[in-house]
What we know:
Number of helices: 6
Shape: globular
CATH topology: Arc Repressor Mutant, subunit A
CATH class: Mainly Alpha
Amino acid sequence: MAGHLIRRLHQISTSVFQTRMKAQGVDLTSVQFAALNAIKANPGIDQAGVAGLIAYDRATIGGVIDRLEAKKLVSRVISPRDRRARAVSLTPAGAALLERLAPVVAEMQGDILAGLSAPEAREFLRLAGKMTAQGNHLSRAPLRPKDPE
């Protein structure tokens, strides 16, 4: 069944990510990596914005950001646009870590897509993208692209 296979693929992807991070001597989850990427692309974004960009639950993104801040990879300040929000930015250590890990994460995609030829991998990604776009409204944490300012 599709749901079972998707769950198994998620398990495999998570295992590959954690194994590669451990080999690099880095304590980082795939969600934390995604958050760092979103913050890098959107310096000063608030936590809710990060959650939307990575399709993560708004109620639990604070814990993700807390852990990144404890690792000194991000910093938070009161948002100049909304005093109730916290603006998040990468620290120099966070930026350096992302730069170091980018090729590692790119390389691991082959392990995650093991058994597929290059054309099959492209087709899988196309179909998975189509499925997630069509089902986004069904998610408890839908992808919410950044609003144009």
